[in-house]
């Protein structure tokens, strides 16, 4: 009978330890959506919290799911040091911008393109916290305004400003001319009297 009691106690203790293990998971925090202009660089912020101190075994995985829902692509990996992707669309276009001591595992994507529209995932494991949430950032790359449109707007605003200055100057000159003419008429009338 004593063996069964010991076995029951071990099962209860095991269930409690498992519950504590799951409660001690890594929590990952990201912006839900980021909008960036085509051709620019964008920092994808990802931070984490863990019930355990940051360990030497901490690892970070960034992956990408395009909008067309084709296969996931690796973007970046960190384990003791940053590892850039050796191939793929993000080769030579992604850099580490995190600080492990501040629980920041962010990256920067360079020269954004419309094909970068999609969802980036950030996953952190911090031994013994190997379970946890996965952060997701939906990136939307929008077209920048063409130079011709900006140029046209600047010319229109500049022309309107110059036209206003000319009109105001003409009104002031006309008023001064009328005032001088009126003063001269009054002076002539006074001298005649």
UniProtKB/TrEMBL annotation:
<keyword id="KW-0732">Signal</keyword>
<feature type="signal peptide">
    <location>
        <begin position="1"/>
        <end position="25"/>
    </location>
</feature>
<dbReference type="Pfam" id="PF07686">
    <property type="entry name" value="V-set"/>
</dbReference>
<dbReference type="InterPro" id="IPR003599">
    <property type="entry name" value="Ig_sub"/>
</dbReference>
<dbReference type="InterPro" id="IPR007110">
    <property type="entry name" value="Ig-like_dom"/>
</dbReference>
<feature type="transmembrane region" description="Helical">
    <location>
        <begin position="150"/>
        <end position="174"/>
    </location>
</feature>
<feature type="domain" description="Ig-like">
    <location>
        <begin position="24"/>
        <end position="140"/>
    </location>
</feature>
<comment type="similarity">
    <text>Belongs to the myelin P0 protein family.</text>
</comment>
<protein>
    <submittedName>
        <fullName>MPZL2 protein</fullName>
    </submittedName>
</protein>
<dbReference type="GO" id="GO:0098609">
    <property type="term" value="P:cell-cell adhesion"/>
</dbReference>
<dbReference type="InterPro" id="IPR000920">
    <property type="entry name" value="Myelin_P0-rel"/>
</dbReference>
<dbReference type="GO" id="GO:0005886">
    <property type="term" value="C:plasma membrane"/>
</dbReference>
<keyword id="KW-1015">Disulfide bond</keyword>
<keyword id="KW-0393">Immunoglobulin domain</keyword>
<keyword id="KW-0812">Transmembrane</keyword>
<dbReference type="InterPro" id="IPR036179">
    <property type="entry name" value="Ig-like_dom_sf"/>
</dbReference>
<dbReference type="InterPro" id="IPR013783">
    <property type="entry name" value="Ig-like_fold"/>
</dbReference>
<keyword id="KW-0472">Membrane</keyword>
<dbReference type="InterPro" id="IPR013106">
    <property type="entry name" value="Ig_V-set"/>
</dbReference>
<keyword id="KW-0325">Glycoprotein</keyword>
<keyword id="KW-1133">Transmembrane helix</keyword>
